[in-house]
Amino acid sequence: MERAKETIIGMAGYHDSKVQDLKRDTVDGNSKRGVITTDAGVSVSNTDDWLKLSTEHRTGPMLLEDQIAREKIMRFDHERIPERVVHARGSAAFGHFKLHESVKDVSCAGVLTDTSRTTPVFVRFSTVLGSRGSADTVRDVRGFAVKFYTEEGNWDIVGNDIPVFFIQDAMKFPDVIHAGKPEPHNEVPQSQSAHNNFWDFQYLHSEATHMFMWAMSDRGIPRSYRMMQGFGVNTYRLVNKEGASHFVKFHFTPTLGVHSLVWDEALKICGQDPDFHRKDLWEAIESGAFPTWKFGIQVLPESKQDDFEFDILDATKIWPEELVPVRYIGELQLNRNPDEFFTQTEQVAFCTSHVIPGVDFSDDPLLQGRNFSYFDTQLSRLGINWQELPINRPICPMMNNNRDGAMRHRITKGTVNYWPNRFEANPPAKPSQGGFVNYPEKVDGVKQRLRSKKFQEHIGQAQLFYNSLSGHEKAHLTNALAFELDHCDDKTVYTRIVDRLTSIDLSLAQAVATKVGGTAAPQEATKSNPGHKSGYLSQTAFDPKEPTIATRRIAIIVCNGYNASAFTTVRTTLKDRGAFPYVISTRRSAIHPADAPDISADSSSLTPDHHFEGMRSTLFDAILIPDAADISSLRNGRVIHWIREAFGHCKAIGAIGEAVALVKEACGVQGVRLAEKGGKEDVVNSYGVVTTDKLVKEKEEKGKGFLDVFCEEVGKHRCWAREMDGLTGLVAY
Predict the structure, then answer these.
(1) What is residue 380's predicted lDDT score, i.e. its pLDDT?
(2) N or C: which end of the chain has fewer CB within 10 A?
């Protein structure tokens, strides 16, 4: 009784202490007094590496028995219901995949060997960090997930628009996403990485260095889903009919080229049109401008696995195309929008473990953990029968002995729900009948939490990426880092990142340090930059051989008294060349040409698509201003801002006749020449500003006229020389 009494008194004292009022359930996440434990309270010695069968020289397969890793991943998978934990905001479309070249030498998969097939697909693009209600144009990695509905079952390539990732081992998934998501004490910031926790993780987890360089480059703010690459990220296997194994990486390269926004533009679009990418994809497909990607593979025979300085199973590394060329074998096209967003785009579920005969897994430790995590996540988000939903179920025959569970849709008649059974119903398929057989890889090693030596080098490919960028891309990356770190108010965080940048490139580190603080001085431990480059890492490497204006949004600015002949020629030519022209004016009610016989006659009027306050220059790829009898109505602050802002964002600008003076007034920068009345040149192109005194239709038919030159500039995406020569800095946009 006395002992019980002491216990009760002790408990009362406990409840009267600082942890009173349910504080027993409140812990300090910043405390340095404790250590990491499991949910059961068992101290954990390693929370970075999944238990593997490994040696010092090679990373082996991960073991399911690792209860610590399974608990960490499983708890993470079920954190949010029903929204996706990551990739919550997305947009998708239906289409098809067509194989042009059989790869039966490396795979027996029908979709990769039968050129007579047309395989249906569903592709979902997404941002990683933001919630469903966040904006499209934030700086972030973009998901690029493809579901192939093949004759042998569903095959999912669950990739990104960047070929590498932040982590090597899937056990770190909760950490990298927690660090990137809004900070837990105030749920700020939403859908961006410009905060202390993200950059704290980047420094302390040096394997993320290569990836954050990609994310801070122009790749983090794509112009369109239709203009970004897709990568499988992980290393898979291909197995041919003879049972020979090749390692493989998957590539999707857009035929429109790889293009991005500029940062100021991306920020403004977040507020002006947060659905910009979603609408862009939808409108292109509805218009019949179906986006396409070349599909390619990088393949390596198993015998060459150890021939490189990097580990080919390391998801934070690329296989440089100079060492392992991409073999383009097919084309992916998107040509149909979803019928209903929720039941298709929102309920679609992808799994890296969805493979078909001829495709198999490697020992990539990120992939092996994703195989567990993705499948497990769908249970929380959609329930046990998620694969029965129309968007997820295969188009080929499907039968097994799975039964019951919440929201079961399928009705299976008969008495058999097990194997073997007395009827010999639904037996396993033999390999000769297309049954899936795992590649019989020979493995050896010691059961331990270990990564191979090659997994320990984290700087070389970050340098390779930076060295390979063009001048304007390097400038953009520098400014992006400066923006992000300026939002970090913890000096420890931003000074450490400056120190990390020093190990990549001293000039980069010094430029960032000047803006955000920190010291970027040479250190004895600094890894020298050998200057190695790859010709396939800059976005400029993927520009189409013939610049195209197809699907480019071009604003045609008009006013009352516009030149009807010039306007008609401009709009018709742009449409004929595949662009999407939009008429913009001071109002969205009828305006009239200068030569209208009756200014009140509806037959001679033109109704603009938008007015200047409803749309902004950021939502277009270029602007063009035809001639007008009286341009004075366009001499107002908003229109001037439109032109000036487009100039600052390096977009093509075209002006005809009286509009040339308006462009000069708006830009007013040194170094830009404009056409003059009675000038010697019919067309002047200076830093992507294309002008002419008078649009002569015959000139267009005889040779390179105003519209030819203007379309060439639009097809280049941006005039980066304008930025590199410092002209945009003279314009306060």
Answers:
(1) 87
(2) N
Domain CATH for 500 = 1.20.1370.20
pLDDT tens per residue across span 556-588? 999 999 999 999 999 999 999 999 999 999 999
Q: Domain tally for the chain?
A: 3
Indicate if 513 and 551 belong to the same structural domain.
no
Check the CA dihedral 606-607-613-619 and report its sign. Answer: negative
Asked if residues 128 and 87 have their Cβ atoms less than 8 Å apart, the reply is yes
Domain identity same for 389 and 489? no
Q: Give the span between the Cα atoms of 718 and 699, in whole angstroms.
A: 25
Based on the fold, state whether residues 315 and 367 are members of the same structural domain.
yes
672 vs 652: CA distance, rounded Å: 13
Q: Quick one: 465 and 586 in the same domain?
A: no
CATH number at residue 565: 3.40.50.880
Q: Summarize the confidence of residues 698-705 as an average pLDDT.
A: 64
The pLDDT of residue 701 is above 60: no
Kindly state the tokens that stand for 181: 């998501």
Contact 290, 333 (CB under 8 A): yes
Structural tokens at position 304: 């060459």
Closest CA to 495 of 516, 525, 526: 516
Q: Tell the burial category of 623 from Cβ atoms under 10 Å away from its Cβ (0-12, 13-18, 19+).
A: buried
**Which one-letter DSSP state was computed for residue 382?**
H
374 is in an annotated binding site: yes
> Active-site residue among 154, 160, 371, 392?
160
Residues 6+ apart with CB under 8 A from 11: none
Residue 260 pairs with which residues in a beta bridge? Answer: 222
Amino acid identity of 520? A
Locate all alpha helices (DSSP H) within 185-293, ordered by sequence: 196-204, 209-216, 263-272, 276-286
**689-692, strands of its sheet edge to edge:** 610-611, 580-585, 553-557, 622-625, 652-656, 689-692, 683-686
Cα distances (angstroms) measured from residue 407 to each of 145, 342, 350, 385, 387: 26, 17, 19, 6, 11
On the 0-12 / 13-18 / 19+ scale of CB atoms within 10 A, 537 is buried
| Catalytic site includes residue 87 | yes
Q: Is 15 a catalytic residue?
A: no
> DSSP of 34-67, one letter per residue?
S--B-TTS-B-S-SS---EEE-SS----B-TT-H
Specify the pairing of strand 553-557 against strand 236-239: unpaired
On whether both 534 and 557 belong to a single domain, the answer is no
Of 15, 30, 57, 87, which one is the catalytic site residue?
Answer: 87
Using one digit for the tens of pLDDT, what is the confidence trace for 201-210? Answer: 999 999 999 9
Q: What is the pLDDT of residues 88-105, one digit of tens each?
A: 999 999 999 999 999 999
DSSP at 346: I
**Which residue range forms the structural domain that includes residue 479?**
459-541
